[in-house]
Write a structure and sequence with these properties.
alpha/beta, 7 helices, 5 strands, about 35% helix, globular
């Protein structure tokens, strides 16, 4: 499975074809017998998934060290995360447990991405019916870090918990959001890019005050 991930194989047949093409080199990988799809499927089913989960955490820690000094698009030293989800369509005849609608099957993958190096630090696979905002209950907020999310994650009790943990967030507002503006600031730069960057940092640094200004 590690070979399949590193070489971007897309199916058991793809793995089988690729490894059979390198038959003379399989001995050095510890593979003595014939490669077949059924053997790969049985091995994949019997392997404990927690082995790969623990190994992934080790790789994530190593990757974070490598990208620690990676230049970022904005002048900020803290960690910035992007949280979002994607829906993966499945065939109901093969995955009857993944029923999303009457005639459609799907699952939803929620991902927390470290933008400094594009490193996934949290992945949760749920039923497609699970709303995105519920994933905030499973995150352990990192004090001083910033979380950038879509409007689907607007839940004021959960966002307030992020604030209490010392984390910051940026969320797109819903159209029916009722709020009041406490103050505004004119751009001080001649370039649009710098003005946008300053506005972004202003929102991040004073997120807790913006949160308190909402009238719901």
């Amino acid at each position: 499975m590690a070979f399949a991930q590193l070489t971007y194989r897309e199916s058991l047949r793809d793995i089988e074809t690729c490894m059979r093409a390198l038959r003379n080199k399989l001995y050095h990988m510890g593979i003595r017998g014939k490669i077949s799809r059924s053997t790969l499927a049985d091995a994949n089913e019997k392997r404990d998934w927690r082995i790969y989960a623990d190994f992934a955490q080790i790789l994530i820690l190593e990757a974070k060290k490598l990208y620690f000094n990676e230049p970022f698009s904005i002048d900020i030293d803290e960690t910035v995360y992007a949280l979002d989800s994607t829906t993966i369509d499945l065939c109901l005849s093969l995955f009857p447990w993944a029923k999303s609608r009457k005639k459609k099957g799907a699952i939803k993958m929620h991902t927390l991405l470290n933008l400094r190096g594009s490193i996934p630090e949290f992945i949760r696979i749920t039923e497609a019916k699970v709303h995105d905002v519920n994933i905030l209950d499973e995150l352990i907020p990192e004090p001083g870090s910033f979380y950038v999310m879509d409007r689907a994650y607007i839940g004021f009790e959960r966002l307030y918990l992020l604030n209490q943990c010392g984390a910051f967030f940026v969320v797109r507002a819903k159209r029916n959001l009722v709020f009041s503006r406490n103050s505004s600031k004119q751009p001080t730069s001649q370039t649009v890019y710098y003005a946008i960057k300053q506005l972004f940092l202003l929102v991040l640094k004073h997120q807790c005050y913006i949160l308190k200004s909402f009238v719901v």
